[in-house]
Amino acid sequence: METVLNCLKRRPDAVARLICFPWAGGGSAHFARWGRVMDSVEVFALKLPGRETRFREPFFQNMEQIVEEVVAALLPMLDEKPFALFGHSFGALTSFAVAERLKKQHNVEPVHMFLSGAPAPFSEIRLKSQRRSELSDEDFLRWLSSMGGTPPELLGNPEVLQFFLPALKADLHVVENYRCARPERPLLHCSLSCLDGKDDLPHNLQEWRCITSGEFTIRMFDGAHFYLKDPGNEKLLLDHMLKHLEASQLDYL
C-alpha cells in the first residue's frame, strides 16, 4: 500500500480516512501534508508511476490501469472506518473512476466525495475540449501558463521541465481518452461536494448531480483553476471537508 498511497501522519483514532487524487502531473506531497493538520482525519494521497519515489516506473497509459492499482491498494483498508474521496481536476475524474469500480464490483462506496475543478466525465464540455496532450511543447507551455498555479521559475527551467512535462502529458493522455456513459440512475448514495474557483473555466458542475442520490452541494472559491493552492482557500477547503467528514461519522455509526 505504501507504494501507491502516501500517508505522512497515521491516526488510528481518526473518525474517517480521506483519499486524495492529484491533478495531472502532480504528486502526493501537496495533499499528504493535509494529514498533519486534519486532527480527526487520516489522509492518504495517491502516488502515480513516473514521479516521486516511483520515478523509474513507466507512466500509466489508460484509466483502467490507475483504477486497478488504486482499488487493489484500498480494498484491505476500507472496512476499518468510513472513507471519503477528494480529487482535483484530473484527480476528480480518477477518483470517480475508482468510486465507480468500488461500487459496481465490491459494493463499497465513500461517505462523501469532494470533486474539484473538473467537469463530469460524460460532460459535453469535456468531450469536445481540445486534446492538450497533443500540443507542441511551445503551445503546451503557453496553455499551462494561462491556467496559473505553476510557478514561473518552473516554466522557465528546461531541466525541471524535462521531468515535469512528461508526467503532465501522460496524465492528460489518460484523461483525454477516458470515456464514461452518463448513468441512467444514481450510481452512489453518498453526499457529494463540487468545488471550483470562480475564475476557472466553466465546468457545468451541476452535471455531477446525477451520479448520486445523496446530498449535492456546489461551493465556489475566489481564484482560478488552482484556487486550492491559496492558503486562505486551503483553510476554507479543509474546514469544509472536516465538517462533512465529522458529520458523516455520525451517519456511519
From TrEMBL:
Annotated catalysed reactions: (9Z)-octadecenoyl-[ACP] + H2O = (9Z)-octadecenoate + holo-[ACP] + H(+)
Gene (UniProt): olah
Protein's UniProt keywords contain Lipid metabolism: yes
Pfam family, any one: Thioesterase
Family: Belongs to the thioesterase family.
Name of the protein in its database record: S-acyl fatty acid synthase thioesterase, medium chain
EC number: 3.1.2.14
GO molecular function: fatty acyl-[ACP] hydrolase activity
Tree of life domain: Eukaryota
Domain Thioesterase TesA-like: 19-245
Organism: Oryzias latipes
Entry's Gene Ontology BP terms: medium-chain fatty acid biosynthetic process
Organism lineage: Eukaryota, Metazoa, Chordata, Craniata, Vertebrata
Keywords: Fatty acid biosynthesis, Fatty acid metabolism, Hydrolase, Lipid biosynthesis, Lipid metabolism
InterPro entries, alphabetized: AB_hydrolase_fold, TEII, TesA-like, Thioesterase
Record SUPFAM superfamilies: alpha/beta-Hydrolases (SSF53474)
